Fold this protein.
Amino acid sequence: MKTDGLERGGLPGPLEAYVDAFLDDQRAAGYSPNTLAERRAMAVAFARWAETQAIAELSLGEEHVTAFITRRPQRAATEKEQATARRFLAHLRARGVLPPAESRPGTPADALVARYTTFLRQDRGLAENSILVYAPCAREFLAYRLAQAGTLALDGLDAETIRAFLLGRIRNQSSESSRLVTVALRSLLRFLFLRGETPRDFSAAVPTIRTYRQAGVPALLTPEEVEQVLASPDRSTPGGRRDYAILLLLARLGMRASEVVSLELDDLRWRTGELVVRGKGPRVDHLPLLADVGRAVAEYLRHDRGTTTSRRAFLRLIPPRIGLTRPCAIDHIVRLALSRAGVPPRRRHVAHLFRHSLATRMIRHGASIPEIAEVLRHRAQSTTMIYAKVSLEALRTVARPWPMVGGAS
């Protein structure tokens, strides 16, 4: 009678020999001893089950994980068990014990999206955050075309199909969301034409959706509010020291949330007193590592970051100890700091408050638009011109009344 193999004695099987290395990786990721003990038991059970089923190592795949976690119908497998079995399988692939998972797309549409994503990343040099906007739109459009025509048949694509998809996609969406969809769709259609998938460039068939900047000045923090927010983290804790270093990078250097997330250890040039900033697309800039910023970052790295295989400068506080993955994580840190400081919250992209505040302080101290554009690393000075409104607002507070006929009114 076959068993799960948990009670079996004797020497470990071929896969079981890799359990200790798997646990070493999990330990390095910061998991607790209790979690490691649970994962050891599950990894051993999976390795022994695979041996009792006489599954060849090189053929082990996701379908075997599914068979393993459903092997006992009388008890449903927990999410932890499923996740552990898949982590162990991923570990075996990373170590070269198993071949890589099948990466070929399953359908022609999947293959096309994969080529399009590669084009965006390698040929266009788009940032990963931009690809996360463009790729889903491409998937949705190709799925729509498949449902409408029964086949991709891109050589028969027409403007009416494109407009019908767009109208359905942007219904009840904000103007900015709708604009992003049109930009992504236009990019896909250009790609299809360049790759010979369509007989003509249909990007011109996508109507333009215009959005307008608000007339007011950007939301910002006063110098006093900035200092209140910087003083809010509890710097006696690892999380407080990490958040303080992040807030200083935003406030003193005007870094974007995405730039803080992508900051790596090799980007910190301690000898030259600068850090490398990887901005939008392939752009790379160098910023001075100011004394207070450098001290805060160094304190976090020395005492709180811990040992990990990740090269990201700032890590999650809970396991797995990997780098912060999205700019929204920085927004969350800023929102908590605003709340602790008693500063009224803002709605979106709160990390940008510090960029706006830095630019405002500069312009009020006499900095020119080109100087601000250089500090904020704007590719076009037209982006920086919004801060000219700050000067106009300040002038209104000191302007004298315009003389009228017969004297001032």
Summary: The first helix runs from residue 19 to 28. The beta strands are 268-269, 274-278, 284-288. The CA atoms of residues 28 and 307 lie 7 Å apart. Residues 16-94 form one domain.
